[in-house]
Write a structure and sequence with these properties.
By secondary structure, the protein is mainly alpha-helical. The protein is 67% helix and 4% strand. Helix 4 (78-100) crosses helix 5 (108-119) and helix 9 (167-190) packs across helix 10 (193-208).
């Protein structure tokens, strides 16, 4: 328990500066804040709108938490939102997995598993960014953990069926109520995946274990509670948002996106190819450990069997869904990582396993050493685009090299688990050191500074703010405190709007759009974060067509 608490304190301390100093990103995070502000302004509670357009993409739970924080503190705090809605659910998720496996993983093995999960790329990123995925992941893990306890509690299931009063029966009855509640909360956090993932995994696990009494776990109580909770939600949606909103929520955002996605469409092999970096730095190690366990016929226990079945079932399910992005695979990561970690006690001295950990250590060492020499660290054409940090790159990346060297020493002493923990810890130390340069990094990722400057110019010179072919631009109204005008085409009408305005656009759009390129010829424009730019137009002479007429 003390070891687990120490790890959580360490991770929190290493991520604290990043959460405190990071700005909101324009694409999603500012959109969510605008939606929350619009709901608070309009008095909406169950249905949400984005600049007056219905937004049924996400259920209310995450927005409710954000609305509560805004009400209590009077402003949106990156630190509070990131900490309470991303990092805390991540800690709860790993705590559940650690508790689930505490009888199999002891001491250094448990610490290694915990740090493996938190240092995997997508789990780490989801612990910081403002999205609903970690909240849903937490409830999916809770649901499957509850099912795992029910499945292992055979005597409790028998006593509950026969009406016998016993401690095991009371536990089974309690878990039978909690399971549909957790599934509903997963749905209420993100949507259909929150239902499909736990239900599908339970069915596949039961069938693979030749347990045909699936109704014991997904029986009439499960469906009754789940349907009742959903009915309350959907009834509220109907009365507050009407038939169109309900139809969009139940069909357009589920069936349409799943069968023929209008958003994030990708081929079926997307996650098979992406797993290796999504679960990095431990993706190869976990796969090798699971394969070794399978070859030795060691995957028969309820825990390891359920974790392997869950991770593979979620992977296959998401691969069959049309809409795909990397973070959607997040609910599978705890089961992938801990599925492999459960094999650590048996294979930690295996040559291949130690070789994989050594390879990760060497990669960290090479990165740390290469950072001393800029030409080895990054290509010359990219060097100018990197942010200016508070210290040389080698100072910030040095912990990777030191961690790798110390890990190699531990491997030499046959302490594989400690080597894994050291490598993971060195990654967090590097993030901690790099986060003190967030003021510079924010200029690449966020848009606050440029938006406030453009807003100041617009207010001072009484100019409108214009967006051209830029879907995320309206999200920046969080900084503008006003609605900008969307320009879809630079036709004659669109061009006339530029005579006295401030135009926001994507820099990469300049190469593809000859009209925009012509309008910007000889004009300076300001680069913001995430490829965002803006240019100020001040007079009729900025319009080439007008110049021709004058001549």
């Amino acid at each position: 328990m003390k070891r687990r608490a120490a790890i959580y304190i360490f991770i929190f301390a290493m991520l604290l500066p990043l959460m405190a100093l990071r700005e909101f990103t324009p694409a999603n995070e500012l959109r969510y804040l605008n939606i929350v502000d619009e709901a608070l302004s309009n008095g909406n509670f169950i249905t949400f709108y984005d600049h007056g357009m219905l937004y049924a993409d996400k259920p209310p739970l995450y927005f409710w938490f954000a609305m509560l924080l805004k009400k209590v503190f009077g402003f949106h705090s990156m630190f509070l939102l990131s900490c309470l809605l991303s990092l805390v659910p991540a800690f709860i998720t790993s705590w559940i997995m650690d508790r689930w496996t505490e009888s199999k993983l002891k001491g250094e093995e448990s610490a290694a598993a915990l740090l493996m999960l938190h240092s995997s790329v997508m789990f780490l990123a989801s612990s910081i960014v403002l999205r609903m995925d970690m909240l849903m992941c937490m409830f999916i893990v809770l649901a499957l953990y509850t099912f795992g306890k029910m499945y292992a509690n055979k005597s409790g299931a028998r006593d509950a069926k026969e009406g016998v009063t016993s401690h095991e029966a009371r536990l089974f009855r309690r878990d039978r109520i909690l399971l549909p509640i957790y599934v509903f909360l997963a749905i209420f956090s993100k949507g259909a995946v929150g239902f499909l993932a736990p239900v599908l995994c339970i069915i596949v696990f039961c069938l693979s274990d030749k347990e045909l009494r699936i109704g014991r776990y997904l029986g009439w109580r499960f469906w009754g509670i789940l349907v009742a909770l959903c009915a309350i939600w959907w009834t509220g949606v109907y009365f507050e948002g009407g038939k169109d909103y309900l139809n969009n929520l139940l069909f357009h955002q589920t069936v349409d996106r799943g069968v023929n996605s209008f958003h994030h469409k990708a081929p079926f092999w997307y996650y098979l190819a992406g797993y290796w970096w999504i679960a990095a730095v431990w993706s190869v190690l976990c796969i090798v450990l699971i394969i070794k366990g399978w070859r030795k016929r060691m995957l028969g226990g309820i825990r390891i069997h359920l974790m392997v079945v869950t991770s593979l079932s979620i992977l296959v399910m998401l691969s069959l869904v049309s809409s795909k992005i990397a973070i959607y695979l997040l609910p599978a990561l705890p089961f992938f990582i801990y599925g492999g970690a459960l094999m650590l006690p048996y294979f930690k001295d295996d040559k291949l396993v130690r070789g994989i950990v050594a390879a990760v250590a060497w990669i960290f060492i090479v990165i740390g050493i290469a950072s001393i020499f800029k030409r080895l660290a990054v290509p010359e054409n990219l060097a100018e685009t990197l942010p200016k940090l508070w210290a040389p790159y080698w100072v910030i990346l040095l912990p990777l090299a030191l961690g790798g060297l110390l890990a190699l020493k531990m491997l030499k002493n046959r302490n594989t688990c400690f080597a894994i923990s050291i490598i993971s810890a060195s990654l967090f130390v590097t993030i901690f050191l790099g986060s003190f340069s967030m003021n510079e990094i924010n200029k690449m990722l966020g848009a606050k500074e440029g938006c406030l400057e453009a807003s100041r110019i617009a207010e001072q010179k009484q100019k409108p703010l214009l967006y051209y072919s830029f879907s995320a631009a309206p999200n920046m109204d969080y900084y503008f405190k006003q609605n900008g005008q969307q320009i879809k085409e630079l036709d004659s009408a669109g061009l006339s709007n530029l005579e006295n305005g401030i135009l926001f656009f994507k820099e990469r759009r300049i190469k593809r759009d000859s009209t925009l390129r012509q309008r910007l010829e000889g004009k300076e424009y300001t680069r913001l974060g995430d490829n965002i730019c803006y240019a100020e137009f001040s007079s009729e002479k900025d319009n080439p067509e007008d110049n021709k007429e004058e001549q």
